[in-house]
Amino acid sequence: MPNRPIENIVIVGGGTAGWMTAAALSHMLSGQKFAIQLIESEEIGTVGVGEATVPHIRFFNQKLGFNEADFMAKTKATFKLGIEFCNWGRKGDSYIHPFGAFGESIGGVAFHQHWSRMHRSTGIYPIEEYSLPVMAARAGRFAYPSADPDSLLSTYSYAFQFDAGLYAKYLRSYAEARGVKRIEGKITDVALESESGFVQSVQTNQGDSISADLFIDCSGFRGLLIEGALQTGYDNWQHWLPCDRAVAVPCSIAGPLTPYTRATAQDAGWIWRIPLQHRVGNGHVYCSNYISDDAAATALLGQLESAPLAALNQLRFVTGKRRKQWSKNVVAMGLSAGFLEPLESTSIHLIQLAIGRLLEFFPDKSWDPALASEYNRLMDLEYERVRDFLILHYHATERDDTPFWNYVRTMPVPDTLEHKIEMFRERGIVVNYRDGMFLDASWIAVYLGQRIIPQNNDPLGNAIAEADLQVQLERLRSDCRAAAEGLSSHADFIRQIGAHAH
Amino acid sequence: MRILYGRSAPMPIDRIVIVGGGVAAWLSALALTLKVTGMIIVIDTEGIDDSLGIPLAIEPTLPSLADLHALIEIDEDNLVVQTGSSFGLGRALSNWGPSEAVAFHPYGEIGANLGPVAFQHLIARIRADGGTANLANYSVAALCAQSGRFAPYRGNARSVLSTMSHGLHLQIDRYRHFIKNAALQNGASVVVGIPEEIHVDAKNQISSIRLSSGQIVMGDFFLDCSGPARLVSGKMAGFSFEDWSEWLPNNEVKQSVTPSTAPPPLYAHVEAHDQGWQRFVSCQDHVEELFFTRRAQMYDAGAYTFTNGRIRTPWTGNCLAIGGAAAVIEPIASTQLHLAASAISRLLDLFPHRRDSSVEAIEYNRRTIEQLENARDYAILHFANQHQSKHRFPGRLANRLSAYQASGRVALYDEETFETWDWIALFETLGIAPRRYDVVADGISRGAIAEHVERVRSVMLTAVSTLPTQQSYLHTRRDDLA
C-alpha cells in the first residue's frame, strides 16, 4: 500500500543500538526490497555501559530466533534476577528490586498493604523475604521460572548481564548474514536537501557519499544527524538527574557469580557492579559538581574486588531526551535519542522499544507527519516514566551526609512523581499508567526499599485478623526460603544448560 | 475472593449512606455489604430510575460488567434466567458511514495475528491488493450474533471461542430488584424519602442528611447515586458541571417498550438518522426502542431530557457521585452501567482509610476523569460523519484519529473502556481507513495471507457450529436452575 516505499535505510553507528536495529530490521523486513547499510568506524569505541538488561530482551532475542544457551555462551552472559541497591535510603541499607512481585494479594487486597499494616503494628521481616527471586538472588541461585501459575517458581522473570561488545558482534554476524551491508568509515559531513531540510547523504572519511531515504542515528551521545545536522534540540533533565560523568573499568571475578547487578550509592553518585562469566563490569556514575574525576576514579578503584583488567574509560553525558526522537527522515535510537543513566538497566530496553515502534510507524516517501508525531509522543512517555522512576531512587532518601544527597533529597521533582510518592506514602496506593515499562511491583520495591512506608493501609485489608495474616505471611516466607534453597547455584545452572563460554 | 474469617479490626468508616434507590445505588450497596464492614444505609428516593444517567428499560452491557459480578458473586446465567434478560455480543451499526451495508461491532477479538503482523494489517493488505474483506467475518462474537448461536465460553484459551466476549441485555427493573434483594439480604438497610437538607461542615464533610419527612440520617461517607438530579453532590461547595453538548448535542430521548416473544437478537441495533439516532435492543420478553435527538423548539412531554457532561469533581469531601450523578454520556456505546460498575470497583480499590481523608479522592478523581473522557471520545467519534462533526474533536480524539489514519495503529491512553478492536470496528463503520498498514505485512505472500484468513474463518465457523442457539441454551439453564 505504501505509494512510494522507502528503498534505502542507512544506520549511522554500530554498537549495541546500531546492530540491534540492523539485526531486527533485516529480520522483520526480510524478503522485501530494502537495502540496509550500517556505517561504523573501527576507530570509535562503543560506550558498552548497557551490559545489564531487563526481561524484555528475551522477547527481542526470541523474535530473532536466537538460541538462548548459544547467545549466552557467545556474549559470556549471566542470568539476572534483579538489582541490589546498597546505601540508597540510608547508609548501610540494602534491598533488591527483583523481576517479580512480592507475595500475592490476600482477600483481594494487595500484599504490600498487608505487609505495611504488620510493619506498623507488630513488626515484620523485610519484604524481600516474601519474594522468591530476591531470596534466590541473595543465595546466588537460579532456575528458569515455571509455567505453572500455582507454583511459587512462576512468580518471577529474568534477564541477562552480558558483554555488550560481544552482543553487538553477535548481532552483526546475524545482520550481515541477512544482507545488511557494513561500511567502514567515520562521518565527516552531512548533506541536507535544500527545500525539505531532510538528510540527503552522509560523507565518510573514506571518501564515500552514502545517500538514503531513512537514516537511523545510532551515533551515540553526540547525535551526529539528529542534533549535529538537524539541530532537533534536547530536553535537559540535569536538575533532576544531576550525574554527568562516569568512569568504567572491568576486573576479574573474585567472589561467587551473583545472579544480579549491584548499584552502590556513593558520596556523589553510585557504582555499578555487573558480573559476567569472564569478568566483572564496574563503573562509577557521578556528578562533577560534587566530586572530581580523580576522586571518582579513586573511589571506583578502591571498591574493585580484584585488579583492573583495562585502563579507565571516562565518559561524559547530559541526562535528558532529544526533543524529537524522530525528526524529518532521521530516527534517533540509543544514546542519540536521550541519556538516562543505567541505574535500572533501561538503555537496551529503550532501543528495543524504539525499533518496535519504528516498525509500527514505518514511513514511506510521503513522510506522513502523523507517524513521527505519534512515535514521538509514545517515546516521550517512555522516557519520562523511566526518568521519574530513576529520580525516585535519588529523591527517596534520608541521606544528608554529603551536599549531593542534600540536593537530590530536597530538589523539586516532576508533578507526576510527586503525586505517585504522595499516594504511596499516605495510603500505599500505587499510581501507574498504561505506557511505561516499570509495573507496580517495581515501584513497590523501590518505595519500600528506600523507606517510603505507607502511613495508612487499605482499610479493606483490616477484615483479616492479624493473627490469621501472620500465619499466611509466615507460610509464604518459609516457602520462599525453601524454594530458593532448592535451586542450583547460578554458576552450576549456566553450565547445566550449556550456556558457559567455551 | 471472600476472606473474612477471624476477628475483624474496626473500620474507620462505620456508616455509609447511599442516596438514590436505582441500579447505581443498589449495585453500590451490594458491593459494599460484601466487601466492607459497617452499616450500609440506602435512602431510596423512588420514582424513575435514572441513576445510571438515562433511564432505560434494557441495558445492553459491555463484557467488563462480568468482572464486578464475579467480585460480588453474581452468577450471570442465574441472573439472566431470573430477570428475563438475554446475552449480547455487540452492536449492529447502520447509516453511520458511506456504506449502506450494516456494520458490526463485536465484543472480543477479531481474527488472529500472522507471526508478528496484527490481523487488521492483513485485512488492509488484502484490500490494497484489490480484494475485499469484512472484519466481522473473522469474529466469533459476530458469527455467533449472525447465527443466533451462543453459550458463554468457560474453557481454556486454546479454543478460538475464548476470543469472544459477551455482555448482557439486562432488564433493568428486574435487575434492580435482583441486586436490591441481594443487598438487603446481606444487611443493607433502606429508608424511603427525599433528601431535603444536606448538613455540610466547614471542611466540606457531610455529617447528616435531613429527609422531607424530618428524619435525619447520619453517616461517615455518602454515595450520591441520585442520577442527574445530584441531590447530594450538587450541594457540595465548589460543585460545577462540565457540559459536553458542544460535542454531544443530543439532549432528548423518546422510549417505547413492547412485549415480544421472538428470540432476542444477540446484538443491539444502532441506526443513524439525520436528526439523531435510534436503538433497538431485545431481551427474552421485550423490545426497547429509543430515539435520541436534539430537542426541537417544541417541548415533547413524552420525552426524557438530559445534558451530556460530567461533574468536575466526582469525589469531594466525603461525598462520591456514582453513575449519572457523576456523568451522563448518551448510551450510544452502552457505557452507562460499565461506568457505574467500574466506579464501584475503583471505590473498593481506593476505599477511604478514614473519614476526612483526601488521598484516595485525589487518585480516584484522576482515574475517573481519564476514564470518562475516553468513553466520551468514543461516543463523539460516532458522529464524525454527521452535522456535529463541524465541532472540533477534543485533542486526544483528534490524535487517535490522525494516528490511526496514518498508521493503522490505535492510540490508547490510561483508563480505557474501549480497546484496540472496539476502536477499529468503529473506524471501519465510519469508513475511516488507514493510509498504510504494517510494513512487515509486505514480507508475507498474498497466498499465505489468504490462506491464513481463510483458516481463521473456517476454524471459527466450525467452533460456532458446535454451540446451541441462545434460546436452547436459555431453556437448558432455566431447567437446570429451576
TrEMBL record, chain A:
7-chloro-L-tryptophan binds at K80. InterPro entries: FAD/NAD-bd_sf (IPR036188), Flavin-dep_Halogenase_NPB (IPR050816), Flavin_halogenase (IPR006905), Trp_halogen (IPR033856). The active site is at K80. Pfam families: Trp_halogenase. Signal peptide: none annotated. SUPFAM superfamilies: FAD/NAD(P)-binding domain. FAD binds at G14, G15, T16, A17, L335, I348. One of its GO terms (molecular function) is nucleotide binding. It comes from the Bacteria. Coiled coil: none annotated. Keywords: FAD, Flavoprotein, Nucleotide-binding. L-tryptophan binds at E344. PANTHER family: FAD-BINDING PROTEIN, FLAVIN-DEPENDENT TRYPTOPHAN HALOGENASE. This is Tryptophan 7-halogenase. It comes from Sphingorhabdus contaminans.
TrEMBL record, chain B:
InterPro entries: FAD/NAD-bd_sf, Flavin-dep_Halogenase_NPB, Flavin_halogenase. It comes from the Bacteria. GO terms for molecular function: monooxygenase activity. This is Tryptophan 7-halogenase. It comes from Sphingorhabdus contaminans.
